[in-house]
Each structure stands twice: as structure tokens, then as C-alpha cells.
Amino acid sequence: MDVEKIIRTSSPLPLRQRSVIHLVLVSNRIGEVVSQALKPYGVSSQQFNVLRILRGQKDSPANLNTLSERMVSRMSNTTRLVDKLLEKGYASRTVCPSNRRKVEIRLTEEGAEALREMDRAVNDAEARLMEQYTPTQLEQLNALLDLIH
């Protein structure tokens, strides 16, 4: 990826600045590829993330706070995401009768089945994105990315 060409600058960027811009461009590309993989299922990557969190809860329900804390993208409106999943029948919501503020959210069987299909599509997209890397290179990449804080 030629950063300078993409941002249309003729002068070389300072290495740190180029690196940050490069990471943003790569992040955007990954987001585009994952969004395309999820498009046939009518869900966003944030909704997909909520579904995976719900699946990870096993038989335990989640609440909005749990979902918000575990989201990959924390800038998402969790309530809106859950509402969209409820409309699709992928999640269920139960309000505790004794404490109306306590809301339990679960993955439905329909949601679990749809998620299995989405997993295959996203796994294929991720494999295409990373196919040129060896496992050792991916470990090195992750070690370098872990240094960013």
C-alpha cells in the first residue's frame, strides 16, 4: 500500500506520521472487507460483534453494560444495535418484573444459526486478507501491534 499515493502527496511523510496513516488505511480496508462479507446477512460489523458477545455468554444473559464493555468498537450505540437484532429475531430481551432497570439479552436459536453462517463468511474474508502472511509473520505483526497503547 503506497500511503503517499493514496493521500496524494508528493513529499515523503515523516515515518511516524506515515505509520499512523498506514494503520488507519489498513483498518478502513479491513472494515470494508468485513462489511462486504456481512452485507448478505443485513447486519453491520457492530451487530455481528454483539451477536458474538451474546454467543460467548453461553447460557447466561448479557445486559447492555456487559455488551458495551466487551464491544470492539466502543463508540457504538449498544441499545440501538440490540434493538436492530431484536427486530431480526436474532436476540431476545427480558425485563425483570421486580427491577425494570434490569434487562437481560440473549441470543436466539435463529440468531445462533445466522451467526454460524456469518462466521463462515467473515472467516473467509479474514483468510483472504491475511493469506499472504505466514503464521510467524502474523505473530510478529501482533507483537508489534501490542506495543501500541
Indicate the structural class: mainly alpha
Task: Please report the first level of CATH classification, the CATH class of the largest domain.
Answer: Mainly Alpha
CATH architecture label of the largest domain: Orthogonal Bundle
Distance between the termini: 24 Å
Order of helices and strands: HHHHHEEHH
Model regions low in confidence, pLDDT < 50 over at least 5 residues:
none
Secondary structure tally: strands: 2
Measured by DSSP, the beta-strand proportion falls in 5-15%
- Rg value: 19 Å
Spatial strand sequence of the major β-sheet: 1-2
Number of separate helices: 7
Q: Could you say what the CATH topology of the largest domain is called? A: Arc Repressor Mutant, subunit A
Residue share in helix: 55-70%
Query: What's the story with the biggest beta sheet?
Result: 2 strands, antiparallel
What is the domain tally? 2
